[in-house]
Amino acid sequence: MLSMNKNTERKDKLIIGKKQVIKGLAENKFCKILIASDNDSHFNDELIKKCELHNTDYEISSNKKELGSLCNIEVPCGVIGIEK
Question: Which domains does the chain have, with CATH numbers?
Answer without folding.
Answer: 11-83 (3.30.1330.30)
